[in-house]
Write a structure and sequence with these properties.
The protein is an all-alpha fold. 75% of the residues lie in helices and 0% in strands. α1 packs antiparallel against α4 and α3 (64-84) runs antiparallel to α6 (158-176). The protein starts with a helix and ends with a helix.
């Protein structure tokens, strides 16, 4: 599992670097995204991955790897938005955004370590396309929970689904790198 931990941290570091550079360009403009809009943003990224996997063709010229990295970053944004709520204007500094990014990345790492222990590194034997399908399923679940105003009877909440999306995306980044 030590190798997995290191690979996981390296993949997250790649995504963190992109996140930080985008903060420089745009500041935390994503603070204005309402939960449903963020879910739709994650959905279009996952749907594009599936389309590229099925067709094997990209007319835009960007591949699957950057889309999985975007899922990680938007997933962390989702966790931040769940905690803070959305805003009508940018209301945090880049440093505050990075501190929250690091906090949630660490939580995702911790969750991965627990699940990876219990599942015996099953992710290594899975296909990347399965990660895509699981992520799309998780996004459908999030949509249902959002449509029910966050109420569930026995299911995990939106935050757990975001963390699973992030972790499956990190596994994809590891496998595709």
């Amino acid at each position: 599992m030590t190798n997995t931990n290191q690979q996981f941290k390296e993949a997250l570091e790649l995504c963190r670097d992109i996140f930080q550079k985008k903060l420089y360009d745009y500041k935390p403009s994503w603070r204005m995204l309402r939960p449903q809009s963020l879910t739709d943003q994650l959905f279009i990224k996952a749907k594009r991955i599936r389309t590229l996997e099925v067709t094997g063709e990209s007319l835009v010229g960007e591949g699957i790897l950057p889309e999985f990295m975007a899922l990680i970053n938007y997933g962390i944004v989702g966790l931040i938005q769940l905690e803070k709520g959305y805003a009508d204007k940018v209301d945090m500094t880049n440093d505050e955004a990075m501190a929250l990014y690091d906090e949630y990345a660490e939580e995702c790492l911790s969750l991965m370590q627990k699940k990876n222990h219990d599942y015996g590194e099953a992710w290594r034997d899975m296909r990347v396309s399965s990660y895509t399908d699981i992520i799309l399923t998780k996004l459908e679940r999030i949509k249902e929970i959002e449509d029910k105003n966050g109420l569930t009877t026995v299911s995990e909440g939106i935050d757990s689904n975001y963390m699973d999306i992030i972790n499956y995306s990190v596994f994809a980044v590891i496998k595709l790198s």
